[in-house]
Fold this protein.
Amino acid sequence: MSATDARDALALAPPFTPPPGFRFGVATAAYQIEGSTLADGRGESIWDRFAHTPGAIANGDTGDVACDHYRRWRADLDLMASLNVESYRFSIAWPRILPTGNGTVNRRGLDFYKRLAEGLRERGIEPTATLYHWDLPQALQNAGGWSNRDTALRFADYARVVGAELGDVVGGWITHNEPWVTAFLGHAYGTKAPGIRDWSTALRVSHHLLYSHGLATAALRSVLPDTAEVGLALNLFPVVPAVDDDAHRAAATIRDGYVNRWFLDPVFRGAYPEDMVERYEREVGPLDAIQDGDLQTIQAPIDFLGVNYYNPMRVAPSAVSPLHVADAESVGPTTGMGWEIEPAGLRRILGRVREYTRLPIMITENGSAFEDGPVVAGAVDDPDRRAYLAGHLEALGQAIADGSDIRRYYVWSLLDNFEWEEGYDQRFGIVHVDFDTQARTPKASALFYRDYIDRARKD
Ligand code: IFM
């Protein structure tokens, strides 16, 4: 069978049987799609500041306009409904609600998300809100940002304000999206806002993020109805030694500690992994941000775990401190981001998660960027993305059969959008966006997903 035939066969394979209560969704994040960064009293965020820093983002792109979703949200919700989408995961921009992170609540910001959530309900789509998808109010960054423990308390205040206002329309709540990215890409590698390169700061930040997750979970529960569900979204990676020898296996254990266990262990086992604590204390310095009682706060019971899965990581030993691990060559095809495509990795990482918890799981993100063809006669052919989705949906069905209690699957992303330091170069959308005209064109992958949902519901 040719590669094209194999892709088509996969796309036409029977869908998995959705378990009771399961919903198919799409996901986005505020700074990546909203634009209107100065509208209705919104404050500055660290991403506004970072995106306007010369050299930080490909082509000097910014999220100033992005997909103009702040003004076009009604049409975007209609589009979702036309694609049979059952749940929408969006994020709330903290600086729209509390422009300086603190103090006065901006009513107009709250109203936007209220209207959005109500608009979803009117269209029969379930709203799921993420509180933090990386857009910290710049005023809080000026006071130290996430390296300042006080920011965790401010986050809980923000959670309480938003929960009290939207709790009657939004049932699913995610405190943080990918705290690993915020902590390490934002503060150790500096490729994301706020662009800091200091491991000691990154480790403080990672702890404060987790601590703030615990505080925000409690804050949300104090204002939400009992039926509301609260969790967090971790980006998890199956880590594979590039060569099956002791040195590579040791590198894989470290990388796993860095990306997976550093977050899973405190949330589900109430302790940081000892090998990583020793490593960081030896190579970076004392982990003095961790105070008595914090781990109990972090271990606050949650209702679900969000898992973002894109790719496996292949690793090799390296001389570079503090981790002594390097990325190894991918095996097989990769996406536009250079990420290896391995649907079976989704099944494997869910197996790993079952070692930690049997809680319900939401696949809070899964998707791919490719260089799509042009819009021709109102259509965009994106066979690679369609195959990516088909393969991962198949793996999801297998994970359910393995015993994972999967409740949601969110494609990243509904729209082509601002892909952080890659600007608009990397297109993750199942819907094409022409950034000159803001025209939306569902790609073949969107039509595949629409039909997949239809078939899954009919079977
Ligand atoms: O676009 C991002 C998203 O904001 C967080 N998870 C990964 C996506 C693709 O890089």
The chain has a mean pLDDT of 97. The longest helix spans residues 199-223. The pocket of 5-hydroxymethyl-3,4-dihydroxypiperidine is lined by residues 29, 32, 178, 308, 365, 412, 419, 428 (CB under 6 Å).
